[in-house]
């Protein structure tokens, strides 16, 4: 089996993050992973997210290590996937974060649905849901890979019956 | 802000897993998360995956705790997201797994692209990529949520400028 895989440059990976707006965010508690889709706004070394409260916020407050993955399909049946490793930083609704909050809001406002399915807790008190959390993932590392998806199953022989 | 969120029944969550074929799989090493897209085949209490070797296989061999999330958009701008918590179990190419391997292969064969972007290591030896790993996630817990995505940004007021 030959599957052509190419490592993307940092510039290409950043372009993909810039053009995307939905990713999958993973976090950890007690050696267990959890992953949910999120909408994000990318800028420089940060990914900004507004989120409803819930498990991932609880977990990242306790362990800030986070991983966000974003994929995109390209031309000629190519697939690109970028993985970001970073740290959760909560940005409270305080004067020092006001401009960042407005900026991220303006970026996210361009999307129809900036909030994610599966994030808010069913049955949670309405007051809890009234206060979405604003946070960022401070990027430590970006890596990206491109894969020629037309190298399909017919190129593969795993099982010889 | 009011975002209608409904907890899905186990039956509904299983239906979503059954009709889907792409999810995002998260794993953990040293308190750090990692997440990649995968193609899976769902059956009863198991999710079957063929995977190229790489970081996630290394990590799950060391810590079998895994989380797979699958989303689907439904009618009337609704979004559904199912999260599975489970354990990694590698199924070696040995006689006792032959039938399971064939069965999972037959399920995955219906998909054009059963393997995931971002999974194989660029520059890895070709012999390494010649031997995809067959594993399953043994499901411990399934939860699902439905969210009315047409409760869009205009229903939300976070910032009072």
Instruction: State the secondary-structure class of chain A.
Output: alpha+beta
Mean residue pLDDT of chain A: 80
How many helices of chain A? The count is 4
- Distance N to C terminus of chain A: 17 Å
Main β-sheet of chain A: number of strands, strand sense, barrel status?
A: 8 strands, antiparallel
List strands and helices in order, with pairings.
Two copies of one chain form a homodimer.
Chain A: E1 5-7, H1 10-19, E2 22-29, E3 32-39, E4 41-43, E5 46-51, H2 55-62, E6 65-73, E7 78-90, H3 98-108, H4 126-129, E8 133-148
Protein described:
The structure is a homodimer of 161-residue chains. In chain A, strands 1, 2, 3, 4, 5, 6, 7 and 8 form an eight-stranded antiparallel sheet that branches. The first copy, chain A, is an alpha+beta fold and 161 residues long. Chain A has four helices and eight strands. Chain A has one domain (5-149): Pnp Oxidase, Chain A. At the A-B interface, strand 1, strand 2, strand 3, strand 6 and strand 7 of A face strand 1, strand 2, strand 3, strand 6 and strand 7 of B.
